[in-house]
Amino acid sequence: MKQPDVIVREVGLRDGLQLVKTFVPTETKLAWARAVAAAGVPEIEITNFVPPKVIAQFADAADVARGALSIPGPKIVALAPNRKGAENMLLAGVRNVNFVLSVSEEHNLANVRKTVDQSFAEFENVVALRAERPEWKNVRIQGCLATSFGCTIRGKVDPNDVLRCVDRYLALGADEILLADTVGYAAPSEISNLFHHTVAIAAGKPVYAHFHDTRGLGLANVYAALEAGVRAFDASTGGLGGCPFAPGASGNIVMEDLVFLLEKEGLKTGVDLDKYRAARSIAETALPDEKFYGTILKAGLPKGFTPPTLAEAAE
Ligand code: COA
Ligand code: ZN
Predict the structure, then answer these.
(1) Which of 10, 157, 299, 309 has its CA 20 to 30 A from that of 136?
(2) DSSP per-residue string spanning 99-136
(3) Which alpha helices (DSSP H) does 154-247 contain, by range?
(4) Ligand 2 centre from 3 Cα, in Å?
(5) How far is the CA of 132 from the centre of ligand 1 (A)?
(6) Is 287 helix (H, G, I), strand (E, B) or coil?
(7) Which ligand has the shortest distance to the CA of 214?
(8) Which residue's C-alpha comes closest to atom 10 of ligand 1?
(9) Is 243 a catalytic residue?
């Protein structure tokens, strides 16, 4: 498999589990991650390094991260909202940090108990970790901007505030940028506008998109982001997901349907949807009370259609 045209990143084990009250055993999380990797997904956000008293589901974050690092294939990323979380992640061996803050002051206070300025100061502390140990020198840090397209607490979020945050992240040493529609408010024209500017400002650094399908516009927004030059998307197994500190939040875009959209548009993802069924079935068995979404695994691929990823694999 050559490089994919578009990176799809599995976030089912992080975003997908945030609202799930049933603790998924560490071994089941790892079996799920192995199945996602076996299907060809090139990148997995594996867990969230937060205090267990804040989200009990991630009490095993270090064990899950350590276990995932031995899975052949995917890049392993984890989320952290502060320096402590990032340090714990690096100690567990992860070398790709996704740092989260929210553009909306109100959501940032609810989510991480800090103002946006305080969170940027924390980001500087995370960047400074690179200098603390030689083996941390090349750690890659993604700057995630939650609530980039609106917030259930504050309402509207000004796109200029988002772009100022992008500038701040880049000036402080972010290697990658992620804009998240945490609560599924965005429409394609807003996506188009903000990602065009962000891709330009990032000047070649990767820009990721993270969409929730709360109001049914998830895949329309993916298409708009693709046209704006985005080549990396988060999605989760069966569309599990949601932020526990954003009232009314619901699922991520569905990985299976995202892969279908991209491959139908001729873009290789590296993902074999048939093999991905195993990942979905592990998650469904582990979480019988959760609703799993998605249409393509039910309906099957269109007759006569060979996804470019499979066509290349057969060459
Ligand atoms: N992992 C583990 N322990 C942590 C930690 C982390 N990431 N961050 C802080 N702690 C510990 C501190 O060491 C301290 O421990 P002590 O009481 O034994 O001294 C305690 O937690 C409180 O630390 P403090 O810095 O005051 O944190 P806080 O209580 O203000 O909480 C966050 C701040 C960011 C840790 C918390 O709001 C949080 O985890 N939010 C996460 C939200 C999230 O993941 N949302 C979904 C994804 S967007
Ligand atoms: Zn999310």
Answers:
(1) 10
(2) EEEESSHHHHHHHHSS-HHHHHHHHHHHHHGGGT-GGG
(3) 159-172, 188-202, 218-227
(4) 26
(5) 21
(6) coil
(7) 2
(8) 51
(9) yes
Nearest to 259 by CA among 241, 242, 243, 277: 277
What is the number of helices (H) and of strands (E) in the chain?
12, 8
User: Taking Cα atoms as reference points, which of 208, 269, 254, 209 lies closest to residue 40?
Assistant: 269
Ligand 2 centroid to 134 CA: how many Å?
Answer: 32
Q: Are 201 and 170 in contact (CB under 8 A)?
A: yes
Asked if residues 220 and 188 have their Cβ atoms less than 8 Å apart, the reply is yes
Ligand nearest to the CA of 11: 2
Q: How far apart are CA 60 and CA 72, in angstroms?
A: 21
**DSSP string spanning 47-85?**
EE---TTT-GGGTTHHHHHHHHHTSSSSEEEEEESSHHH
Output phi, psi for 117, to 5 deg: -60, -45
Residues with a CB atom less than 6 Å from ligand 1: 18, 48-51, 54-55, 81-82, 84-85, 88, 100, 111-113, 146, 243, 245
pLDDT string in tens for the chain (315-residue length): 679 999 999 999 999 999 999 999 999 999 999 999 999 999 999 999 999 999 999 999 999 999 999 999 999 999 999 999 999 999 999 999 999 999 999 999 999 999 999 999 999 999 999 999 999 999 999 999 999 999 999 999 999 999 999 999 999 999 999 999 999 999 999 999 999 999 999 999 999 999 999 999 999 999 999 999 999 999 999 999 988 888 878 899 999 999 999 999 999 999 999 999 999 999 999 999 999 999 998 999 999 999 999 998 888
Instruction: Find out if CATH 3.20.20.70 is the number for domain 7-314.
Output: yes
> Domain residue spans in the chain?
7-314
